[in-house]
Amino acid sequence: MTGRLWGIGVGPGDPELVTLKAARLLAEIPVIAYPAPDEGDSTARMIAASFIPAGRTEIAIRIPMRSGPEPAEIYDRAAEEIAGHLEAGRDVGVLCEGDPFFYGSFIYLHGRLAGRFPCTVVPGVTSLTACAAASGRPLARRDEVLTVIPATLPDAELERRLAATDAAAILKVGRHLPRLKTLLARLNLESLSVYVSHATRPDERVLPLGKAPDGEAPYFSMLLVAKGGAA
Amino acid sequence: MTGRLWGIGVGPGDPELVTLKAARLLAEIPVIAYPAPDEGDSTARMIAASFIPAGRTEIAIRIPMRSGPEPAEIYDRAAEEIAGHLEAGRDVGVLCEGDPFFYGSFIYLHGRLAGRFPCTVVPGVTSLTACAAASGRPLARRDEVLTVIPATLPDAELERRLAATDAAAILKVGRHLPRLKTLLARLNLESLSVYVSHATRPDERVLPLGKAPDGEAPYFSMLLVAKGGAA
């Protein structure tokens, strides 16, 4: 009997936004893995810290934060380490900020392992709805179309997507913030846009886009655009 | 001191997918409200049942399931009943399936009350990521655009939206399923589409679109379209 691979969403940051199911599984599963920066603490591990009993086997998947080519070999190596535990019959839980299947790095492990081992994904609260809650403004209602757009796309594509939708969430804002500000102002969407960083964390910030910081934003920041305006 | 209005996401159906925060608040807040059908039980109330202490004041907001004009007077009346408790200093928690700000009926109460009373929204796990988890397939990754599309839109608009996106979730499938099947087959997207109903509930069903039921689908069903294909 092999072990089961679990993708476990731990939510957007506030440990109280972990689900009861995730909390139970973290108490039970003998091996946990999580993405971590080159140096320092894993955000997913910090969110889940109080649910992880002492003495668990832990696998930190260290991923360089600088953008560049896909670090395929890092995921290859992590997948093999995880596979070793699964083959020995031990379940492995991979901690995922937000939700495992919503722009999560878990997808890279899933692609490498789900064909070989039983796999269950436990959904979590995404940054998408956490940012909407923090902003105090609905994300989408009734027959509205909501488009989720990575900020990494080129200006022309962002412009086309924003023009064609009722509501939008722009993810992975980070260093793209100055460019997005210019773009949204040009499209007359600035006053309908809200900037949110670190939603549900102690350092959460919610600002009208016009008052958002100059320069780069934190990696965990998002812009919400609602053409329908406030509730 | 007035009370606080809480919009509380209780997740997609499995009571274990309630967050620790929602569970704590449900144990504390003296008045709870929830949408309910004309007759019978409220789904949100059923999900949250084990977290609600006996003897709470409860407000069932009964909304006719048949489509038609916005039942504005129903929300007007519910908002006034809730306002009475808030003015008397009692907090009121409104239970919301999934997330309050993601296509939720809480938005109608929020629009009527958030200007008059302090309001906090507690995000929850949406049906969007619950269906993706059930399907075993990532929702969106890397630089992909994800479009959330209500099935109530006309064919031409659905077609345009589906052509323009990398991944889509079609909500509120219900009686639109036969029409959607025809449309997705015509767009050569049938083999890339998965049908999910009642995700995370005991009667959950996950089927390739080609094997989805004939005729109407349950109200709580969704189609997920991933042009990137399987993981």
**Which structural class is indicated by helix and strand composition of chain A?**
alpha/beta
Number of helices of chain A: 7
Helix content of chain A: 25-40%
Number of domains of chain A: 2
Poorly predicted runs of chain A are: none
What multimeric state do the chains show?
A: homodimer
The rounded Rg of chain A comes to: 19 Å
Portion in beta strands of chain A: 15-25%
The CATH class name of the largest domain in chain A reads Alpha Beta
CATH topology name of the largest domain in chain A, in short, is Cobalt-precorrin-4 Transmethylase, domain 1
How far apart are the termini of chain A? 53 Å
Strand order of the largest sheet of chain A: 3-2-4-1-5
- Note the run of SSEs of chain A as H and E: EHEHEHEHEHEHEHEEE
In round numbers, the mean pLDDT of chain A is 95
Task: Name the shape of chain A in a single word.
Answer: elongated
- Largest interface: chains, residues each: A-B, 59 and 59 residues
Characterise the protein shown here.
The structure is a homodimer of 231-residue chains. The relative contact order of chain A is 0.16. The radius of gyration of chain A is 19 Å and the shape is elongated. The longest helix of chain A is centred in the middle third of the chain and has 16 residues, at 72-87. Chain A folds into two domains: 5-122, 3-Layer(aba) Sandwich (Cobalt-precorrin-4 Transmethylase, domain 1); 127-226, Tetrapyrrole methylase, C-terminal domain (Methyltransferase, Cobalt-precorrin-4 Transmethylase, Domain 2, 2-Layer Sandwich). In chain A, the strands form two sheets. A five-stranded parallel beta sheet of chain A has the order 3-2-4-1-5, sandwiched between helices. A five-stranded mixed beta sheet of chain A has the order 6-7-10-8-9, sandwiched between helices. The model of chain A has no long low-confidence stretch (mean pLDDT 95). Chain A has helices at residues 20-28, 43-48, 72-87, 106-113, 127-135, 155-163, 177-186; strands at 5-9, 31-36, 57-62, 92-96, 119-122, 146-150, 167-171, 193-197, 205-208, 221-226. Chain A is built from seven helices and ten strands. Chain A is an alpha/beta fold and 231 residues long. At the A-B interface, helix 1, helix 4, strand 5, helix 5 and strand 6 of A face helix 1, helix 4, strand 5, helix 5 and strand 6 of B. Strand 6 of chain A pairs antiparallel with strand 6 (146-150) of chain B, so a sheet runs across the interface.
